[in-house]
Every structure is written in C-alpha cells, then in structure tokens.
Amino acid sequence: MKASEKKDVELIFIYNADAGFFNGMLDSAHKLFSPKTYSCDLCAVTHGLAGVKTEWREFIQSFSVPITYYHKNDRPQYLMEFKLPVILLKNSQGIQELVSADEMKRLENAKQLMDRLSIYRSREEE
Prior knowledge:
Elements: H1 3-6, E1 10-15, H2 21-33, H3 41-46, E2 47-48, E3 51-52, H4 54-61, E4 67-71, E5 86-91, E6 94-99, H5 101-106, H6 110-124
Parallel strand pairs: 1-4
Antiparallel strand pairs: 1-5, 2-3, 5-6
C-alpha cells in the first residue's frame, strides 16, 4: 500500500461490551466466573482479567495505520449495522469487515486473531 493511500485507511475494532470502568470490572468477573456465556469474543481473546494481553498489544502496535476502538454503547451511528464484535477496515472505498462476529466466535486465542489480521497487514505493507 502506498503512503498516500495509508492516510485514508483506518482499522476499527468494536467490542460487544459497554465502555466504562464499572462495566470493565463486571466483564472481568463474567470472564472469570462464566467464560462460556461471555458475549464479547474479541475481548475474550485480546484481554485477560487484568487488561490487554501483552502479545496482543505488541502485535497491534506494529500496524502502520490508525486504529480506533469502540464499545457497543459508544460507537457512531454509521457503525450500528454491524453485528458485534467486529473488526473493520475503513478506506476510500467504504467500510468492510476484516473479521466478522461469526468468524470471531471460532477464534480460541489471540494468536489465531493475529494470524487472521496478518493477512491484512501483509497487504498493507505491499
């Protein structure tokens, strides 16, 4: 991807969880006591009980495009149509799903998500 094209590109992560400290504490407790019923598959693979997993943080920092994070209760109206959680690519052609909610359900760990996103990153570096 050419440098001139990168400025028009953004990755968007939308968690199927509500924003806020109290909600984060409730989510951590939910993951601990009832992980099978936890509704945010993105959170489940990228966050531990104490926050963002180190390997995920390092991976995500390696991207050269801006990344925006939203929660289900703070996402803009134009992103309401997407089933959560989701990872989107926004560029001059519009918005497309990189990892859909259905794909996210099949992921068991951060490594699988990183492998999935590495396909995009290799295109980004071309």
